[in-house]
Write a structure and sequence with these properties.
The complex is a heterodimer of chains A (261) and B (338). Chain A has one domain: Orthogonal Bundle (MetI-like fold). Helices cover 75% and strands 0% of the residues of chain A. Chain B has 338 residues and is α/β, with parallel strands linked by helices. Chain B has 2 domains: 191 residues, Periplasmic binding protein-like II (D-Maltodextrin-Binding Protein, domain 2, 3-Layer(aba) Sandwich); 100 residues, D-Maltodextrin-Binding Protein, domain 2. In chain B, the strands form 3 sheets. In chain B, strands 2-1-3-11-4 form a 5-stranded mixed beta sheet, with helices on both faces. Chain B has a 5-stranded mixed beta sheet with strand order 8-7-9-6-10, with helices on both faces. A two-stranded antiparallel sheet of chain B has the order 5-12. Chain B is globular. The chains are: A mainly alpha (261), B alpha/beta (338).
């Protein structure tokens, strides 16, 4: 009986993040786009060259317009998202631990989640006017539901044995909530935060349909109406950068909060 | 089965026997399902394009902007839409030529109305000349509503900024803001305005045609068509004018008291419009604009619109109406700048 040496095969696919690959892709796309535009193969009013988009961005930055747009939008995003997150986590925890809240909450969430929030804009104007309130409400409404659902399913995934153990040690309900439920549901809550952050960005544009003088969403809308495609794309770049920044911040938060895993 | 084969055979023989017609020029017309595009529909339905040797295909769009983009980009040959800052910016880049008129605000023909919120009306906003100093709901900066407000401001001798415009994107949003007094005023299509006034949800304080008659929109083609297919453009314009005359004959009528009337002879035209716009005869009558029988454009007014939008920095300073309006296809345009 001869022993044959078997090489280790169980490496899996294990995709790694290749350093610089993302930046390189972006660079290749930009160079290709720029050269297509310069060669006159794409008409400038359908798709202006990236250099024109960046010069529009630069122009807005110099005039102070960019700061005004960003300030307005970041404020709305932060406010609306904070409201949606706080109420969503609360509702999700309640659905996760209480039968009454679950029986009442889940059907409500199921019924209200799919409503396109843009369809509610005229109603929001009737109820909340045309100031900041309807803009915050649009974002809060859109983010509440995914956060509530993600939080509730986060609670559901906590091993029952952990809760039972805490109960057998005679911990108070509040202590169990604080030391077992909340940390256990945290991965779910953070997943909800991630999903809802992109929803918040999508809804920003809808929210800024209502009487907004400044804001990245308002900028994109108006540039579209005015056929200023360079400014429109500059706004899209801003939205995308905002999304990347929020994603990076959430990633860092996740690594800190979930270090115990 | 056999019969249908027989019929096809007979048709084929008949086709062989027919005189070989000249190959029809194919054209694509970009249109909106609005009454203001009526001449396009009438010309198609009554075969006016065919009479001119054109094989026309109507392509429908949901919004005005894509119509202009389609013509500028060469995906369509002709289009009819309202004038906006976006349209002027696109036309200013040289790919479009305005060759005629869409509809216009004509004295005596109710189309767009000024409305005051009940609260603002109670505080004295009882006529359009009191609008300066008040807020006005519009869809977007640079929209038709913005142009109407700007023309009014000019007529009153104040800066456009004196009327504080609040962009709300959609007509339902504008109505909601007006009903609740979030804005002092709005300009809305006549049939909506009359409804709001009747329900006492807002006050109708005047009609745009009473203050600033103006060119609502244009008929346009690509610069390339003007340069390379001039006979086709001319043929299209003749067909469009026939459609416009048919519309004018029955849809632009008023009674002795000056009120808009639709008599029995309007029925066939309304039926054609209903077919293409998918709306009811009542809605068509309520939203029917004045359309010039020859497609003549108030050219001077377009210059004024561009000028006021430039002042507001909504139209690029390089845009020159003289370069995107081609008056050579239709005789008798109004207010030609010297």
């Amino acid at each position: 009986m001869s022993a044959r040496e078997v090489p280790f095969r169980g490496g899996g696919f294990a995709p790694r993040q290749l350093r610089g690959a993302g930046l390189a892709t972006a660079a290749v796309v930009l160079v290709a786009w720029e050269s297509l535009s310069r060669a006159g193969l794409v008409s400038p009013f359908a798709l202006p060259a990236p250099s024109r988009v960046f010069s529009a961005l630069f122009e807005m930055a110099r005039s102070g317009e960019l700061a005004a747009h960003l300030q307005a939008s970041v404020g709305r995003l932060a406010g609306g998202w904070a409201i949606g997150l706080a109420t969503g986590v609360t509702a999700g925890l309640a659905i996760g631990i209480s039968s009454l809240a679950r029986s009442v909450g889940l059907p409500l969430v199921a019924a209200l989640f799919p409503i396109p929030k843009i369809a509610l804009l005229p109603l929001l104007i009737l109820w909340l006017g045309i100031g900041e309130a309807p803009k915050l409400a649009t974002i809060a409404l859109g983010t509440f539901f995914p956060v509530a659902l993600a939080t509730a399913s986060g609670v559901d995934q906590i091993p029952k044995s952990l809760v039972r153990m805490a109960q057998s040690f005679d911990l108070s309900r509040w202590a169990i909530l604080r030391t077992v439920i909340l940390p256990g549901a945290l991965p779910g809550i953070l997943a909800g935060a991630r999903i809802s952050s992109s929803i918040a960005l999508v809804l920003l544009t809808a929210a800024e349909m209502i009487g907004a003088e400044y804001g990245v969403g308002a900028l994109v809308l108006q540039a579209g109406h005015l056929m200023r495609v360079d400014r429109l794309l500059a706004g899209v770049v801003l939205l995308s950068l905002l999304g990347v920044a929020i994603g990076a911040a959430l990633g860092a938060l996740e690594r800190r909060l979930l270090a115990w895993r | 089965m056999v019969l249908s084969w027989l019929a096809r055979g007979l048709l084929a023989i008949a086709a062989l026997g027919a005189p070989a017609a000249e190959a029809a020029e194919k054209i694509k017309i970009a249109a909106l399902t609005l009454v203001s595009s009526a001449p396009l529909f009438i010309a198609q339905d009554r075969g006016y394009y065919r009479e001119e040797g054109l094989e026309a295909e109507l392509v429908f769009f949901r919004a005005a902007q894509p119509v202009a983009v389609a013509v500028a980009g060469g995906e369509a040959d002709f289009g009819v839409t309202a004038f906006t800052a976006g349209f002027f910016n696109l036309a200013g880049q040289g790919a479009l030529k305005v060759i005629g008129a869409q509809s216009r605000e004509e004295p005596g023909f109710d189309f767009s109305a000024y409305l005051a919120s009940n609260a603002a009306y109670a505080k004295g906003l009882t006529a359009p000349d009191k609008l300066p100093g008040h807020s006005l709901a519009i869809t977007q900066h640079g929209s038709s509503f913005h142009i109407m407000a700007g023309l009014l401001a000019r007529k009153l001798g104040v800066a456009t900024k004196a009327i504080r415009m609040v962009p709300l994107e959609t007509l339902p949003n504008m109505q909601a803001a007006l009903k609740t007094g979030q804005v002092d005023a709005a300009i809305l299509p006549g049939h909506i305005a009359v409804e709001l006034d009747r329900a006492q949800e807002a006050k109708l304080i005047g009609w745009v045609h009473q203050w600033t008659p103006y060119a609502l929109g244009g008929l346009f083609t690509s610069t390339r068509n003007v340069q390379e297919r001039r006979p086709v453009v001319e043929a299209f314009v003749r067909a469009y004018q026939k459609g416009a005359r048919d519309y004018h004959a029955v849809m632009n009528k008023r009674d002795a008291a000056g009120r808009r009337i639709f008599e029995a002879d309007a029925e066939p035209i309304i039926a054609i419009i209903a077919k293409y716009t998918q709306s009811t005869p009542e809605a068509i009558k309520a939203g029917a604009p004045y359309i010039d029988p020859e497609g003549r454009l108030d050219v001077g007014n377009v210059f004024e619109q561009v000028a006021l939008l430039k002042e507001e920095k909504l139209v690029d300073p390089s845009v020159d109406p003289a370069r995107f309006i081609d008056t050579s296809f239709i005789a008798g345009h109004f207010n030609l700048p010297r």
